[in-house]
Protein 1
Amino acid sequence: MKTTRFQQRDLVWGALVVMLAALPLIPGVIGNSFRAHVMIMVLLYASMAQSWNIVSGYAGQTSFGHSVFFGIGAYGAGMAVVTYGLTPWPGFLAGALLAAVVAVLISWPCFRLSGHYFAIATFAIVEIFNRLFMVWDWVGGALGLDYPILPDGWVNFVWSQTKVGFYYGALALFVLIFGIVRWIETHRLGYYLRAVREGQETAESLGVNSTAVKLSAMAFSAFLAALCGGFFVQYNYRVDPPMVMSLEMSMKFVLITILGGLGNFWGPLLGAMILIPLQEYTRAYLTVLGSGVDLVIFGLIIVLMMVKQPRGIMGIVTDFRARRRRAGALPDAGA
Amino acid sequence: MALLEVDNLTMTFGSLVANRDVSFQVEAGTIVGLIGPNGAGKTTIFNCLAGMYKPTAGRIVFDGRDITRLPAWKVSRLGMARTFQVVRPLKEMTVLENILVGAYLRQADSDRAMEIALRCLKTCFLEGDKDRPAGDLTIGNKKRLEVARALATGPKLLLLDEAVAGLTSTEVRQMVGLIRGLRDEGITILMVEHIMEAIMPIADKIVVLDGGIKIAEDRPAAVVANETVIKAYFGEKFSQRLKTMKQAGAS
């Protein structure tokens, strides 16, 4: 029974990826349009939220510090290109590895703090890194790093003529991160993450080394968030500290996942599918009302969600399914 | 050598002494009961054994290894599993997933861990609830889940903290049968229990605590006749009256 359920879900997943991969083949859908930009952003932010979901959703350790790891990844790629004149690829890897190491070093002392205190500590870390990168000349300081003009293609991971390249890049990132989380979910680490969230002492009584489990979740999570940061800097051709290492950026990791469904595989995608188009279209069309309109709507949706269904959109979906199953099961029970 | 040796264990919380110089042994393959009035320090001993508390003084040797200050997860890996008196289901995970967390301790492969989990699910009569969220179970089933989950870790010694408290009499009989079955499979059992019908028929030895101190250690039949034990449970007065009654009966 367990296996069939997994197969069904994986089938849905496979179909979705094939569909997304085929989209650019339809003329006029991707191209260089604003729609393409929105779709790339949805894939990117869904991936970011999913990477956050590992440590904060599945393992229940709320982190407001993910923009730091995202930023380290962004600077990894940025410095490889701007400072060292290389392709961004070694920068992606170095940034991601460094982010994982930094994440482990930061969380080691922070995991001694439980519950809200861990979350508060991660807040402080964003500020520290933001200030540090602002004054650090080696990484470009407050001016940041600006990309030179480079030939298009996968080697430099930049495309100036069409967005199809970036679209496939974002899709690859999306498949990688969602694939890894899917794997974790069905293996020992996934069960251990959830066990630690549901009851740390209970998990330990069952032989789970909760510190090691939380640290590995953090390392995975930071590594993947940093890859997203690398993509982000390539897409924007520049990076400076407020762009990446800010509380606002951290909050996007958090809010998208919470809206979609915390600790749920589909949650980050659903959240991104709603919040990102909202953000991009209000920015594009409603600027007459002022620059923060998207954030106002953002905030309203979150408040509404927290009041009505704290488990997010996936909570609504599971409730609906459970109700239907119960309605379907009743005649069976009678027979 | 005994599977578990507790040597002069003392546990204090500030000025409160929960256990003082408690020593006893649990032989492999036996069922040992740990009884005593409320506040006698039974659960504190369990927490010390299982690595959740660091004892103030004394020594715990399990399977030939000193485990006195090891963290809980290491103790569990060495083969000592526990259940909690106040049940602690991993609420948002299903019953099967709860047991699976335990099963993964000895088996990293998902399919084989699943086999272990399904076996423990069956042993503890939980098949009907396998896909329910553990938080939704009745208290009886939550108690069974505690046992199933601990069992899935493949323990040599199982610590049961009031595993039958709160169950109906039918459920108690079922659980007692289950515990006996586990012993027959070779799992040593140390159990804290208040319900005498549950523990007396199956225990090979009873250790009695009162006020944090061991007051008796004997076969069940001898323990119920022990004067200190009667005093601890029923008070000085009743113990005196019982003595007079016995003497009157004898003469």
Note: Chain A has one domain: 2-246.
Protein 2
Amino acid sequence: MSKSPEVKLVNVPSPNFVPEKDLGKPLVLEAAHLGIDFGGLVAVDEFNIGIGATEICGLIGPNGAGKTTIFNLLTKVYEPTRGTIMLGGKDTHNLTPVQVNQMGIARTFQNIRLFDKLTVEENVKIGLHNHMGYHTLAGVFRLPNYWSEEKKAHERALELLDIFGMADLANVTADSLPYGAQRRLEIVRALATGPKLLLLDEPAAGMNPSETEELMNNIRKIRDEFQIAVLLIEHDMNLVMGICESIVVLNFGRIIAKGTPSQIQGNPQVIEAYLGTHRG
Amino acid sequence: MLAHLINGISLGSIYAIIALGYTMVYGIAKMLNFAHGDVIMVGGYVSFCSMMYLGFPAPLAVLLAMIVCTTLGITIERLAYKPLRSATSLAVLITAIGMSYFLQNAALIIWGANPKAFPNMFKDIEAIEFAGARISPVALVAIVANVIIMVALTLFTSRTKVGKAMRAVSEDKGAATLMGINVNFTISLTFAIGSGLAAIAGVLLCTAYPTLMPTTGSMPGIKAFTAAVFGGIGSIPGAMIGGILLGVIEIFARAYISSELADAIVFGVLIVVLIFRPTGLLGKQIHEKV
């Protein structure tokens, strides 16, 4: 058998940057030249991003810039027209939303999409679905393994709910929760799937300043406790500037700026995108 | 009077078991599977053949019918409905009606048009006397089977992970997918359960009304669909209540008003109920957001 040819591998300089603390750890997400067209409309183009293992990254931009479309691409609701998405170093080309969820990406929704008629605990258990190791038939016949796995899931669900102090609401239906609590439950449900990267779509929408403050602390707490990365879309600049280590600004489907919060705040292009050009 | 009531509950129990198939499939796949009634007919023929030609004992014949119908249900879903997952509901509805005719005509070719006399599997058991009313064993078995199925199904959907996944999929397929739930598996499972129950209903129906023809399933199928709508389509307890009420109304109408008008009265009651409660007795009220 012939020996395979010797190839010298060299480092390719990546266009991405990560916080110093995540240097040396593999990137949790790396998207390159990502783009999608809807008919003739280019919705997203040349989207490049790298997210460090425990980075909190903000995705901002005016309405209609394509932020939620990016989330839909990353979670494979849409198959990209161009480019690649690597999750934990693996290409997600042609994978389904269920498969990428199992690879470690989970999300919340801009317009809350909880399972309204299920209880708070059951909503979390849907997130835990793939972590419960019993067969459907074991559930039908209630074999010992069903009881032990259900008990574990019950305890885990309460533990996760406790992050937001919601364990006492476990048995109420999701639709009876106040708005802010529904947003928090969506985060818990996403966390239950065991992600390495959590995507939050406007987590602070409709929250008052004190709720937003609490949410910021909780996002940091989740990141520290679970050692995961967070990518969030948000219009509340206090939250974005307060917790994000890096920020990506999107306008008309393209990245117009990347950097630390202070770099973004002073960037003339960003100011222009948000406020329009100055006419003298 | 009591005898009519019990017969009504018994007939209603059979409707309820069939209605479960409609209501679960509607709840999860958001489609009306009009071929469901014909799966009942297939269940009847399979159990008939295995008892008459293969000499199987009754319980084994029922089991075989369940296996065949479950497989048939999953196959129908895979071949006919799955490719239409993102099509308009009208396309799926027409396909379901087509599938219904396909099954009826396939049965016509395989088993012929002549009605078959279904064997009475309870012929050795005496009818039970209860408070002056004679209750046939099949009536009793239908009621007991219905209760067991309802309890088992309720426990399944509320206590197991797959049952919860089914409820999640029925509420929001997209969100369930993004939480890692395999929607296709969940839909297949729903068809499997519905079709397995259709086999049981088929055997009960043919034992109670022992003529078996390729069109045997269509009328009970339509009545069970009515029962599902009556109780609130998508709701499991709704199917039970709708089925039993429908059975009781039908038997009473037949006994006290007119046997020719019984079906008209049944559907008339449905129309009246839907005027006052458009989502059925237990159906959830949909609040229009303005």
Note: Chain B touches chain A through 24 residues (CB under 8 Å).
